[in-house]
Design a protein that fits this description.
Strand content: 35-45%
Number of helices: 3
Radius of gyration: 20 Å
Number of strands: 19
Order of helices and strands: EEEEEEEHEEEEEEEEHEEHEE
Structural class: mainly beta
Shape: globular
Length: 290
């Protein structure tokens, strides 16, 4: 179940801000599919770097995503953002395979302009991934950008959350669990991922409860300043070095629902973590920092 303590009179969608505090920007969420595997005995650990191509030919790093381990179809949580002054600029997203003991491996690249992103049909732009020489091959995979024009607060708040598993939740021996939180897009057809926790071993002994470490989500990223958006919470059993993660529970609810919750109220959802029935995980909001 989901439980939240929300102070009366404060809005989760736009806490303590008026229109003068909001700044327009373009948000791009990135999903890649079919990337090359550069690792032996496991899968590539991809991350993406955003470069601005300057007039003098220099590549200026602007941003980068998190690393997603053992995944050839990464759904990145980190968002790329563009402002009005970026409209006519050209950007390159380079996808790399993270390595600890040696140099990171190149996986591919795509080039685009923010204007190209904003003109995408239904806010979805798919680009085939190129090799270093600019050649396109199916072996490189594809990248999909989910694009939205949003408003964010100049001083967004941080919302702390934690997931707790009750004593009725029993995990398979030697397995790990992680959660993902996603937000619906403006066209309501797709979800963009906004948080993915680190995999954690949880007690397999029946009768033990467990709480994943508290994580924080930016309020603007969580809500997109829209109470009608939906949030998707998914619970996964980690699939190991081959990336075959199994969805064992999920719940969908509106952002606006959170504004109406009070301590002790909840939204129940079930997971398949119990061998003799389905258990009820609990997403808790221990702190609302506004």
């Amino acid at each position: 179940m989901l439980e939240a303590g929300v102070s009366s009179g404060l809005s989760l969608v736009n806490p303590g801000a008026d229109d003068r505090d909001l700044v327009p920007y373009t948000e791009a969420s990135v999903v890649c599919k079919g990337l090359r595997n550069r690792d032996f005995g496991s899968l590539s650990d991809p991350f993406a770097i955003l470069y601005e191509l300057l007039p003098n030919g220099v590549y200026l790093e602007r941003d980068r995503t998190e690393v997603i381990f053992d995944d050839l179809n990464p759904n990145f949580c980190h968002k790329f953002s563009f402002e009005e002054r970026d409209q006519q600029k050209t950007f390159q997203m380079t996808i790399m395979d993270y390595d600890i003991v040696k140099k990171d491996d190149f996986l591919g690249l795509v080039r685009f302009t923010p204007q190209q992103l904003e003109s995408a049909t239904n806010g979805v732009l798919e680009l085939e991934i190129q090799s270093k020489n600019g050649k396109i091959s199916r072996k490189n995979g594809t990248s999909t950008f989910y694009v939205e024009r949003l408003m964010r607060s100049k001083e967004p708040c941080k919302i702390g959350m934690e997931l707790g598993l009750g004593a009725d939740c029993k995990v398979e021996s030697k397995k790990k669990i992680f959660l993902c939180l996603s937000r619906s897009t403006a066209n309501s057809r797709d979800y963009v991922r906004i948080f993915r926790s680190e995999p954690m071993q949880i007690p397999s002994k029946k009768g033990e409860s467990f709480v994943l470490p508290t994580f924080e989500v930016d309020s603007s990223t969580l809500t997109a300043q829209d109470s009608e958006r939906h949030l998707l919470l998914e619970l996964f059993l980690e699939g190991g070095r081959k990336g075959n993660h199994r969805n064992i529970g999920e719940v969908v609810f509106k952002v606006g629902k959170l504004d109406n919750l009070r301590a002790g109220e909840s939204i129940a959802f079930f997971s398949g973590l119990s061998g003799d029935g389905r258990c009820r995980p609990q997403l808790v909001f221990p702190c609302m920092n506004w």
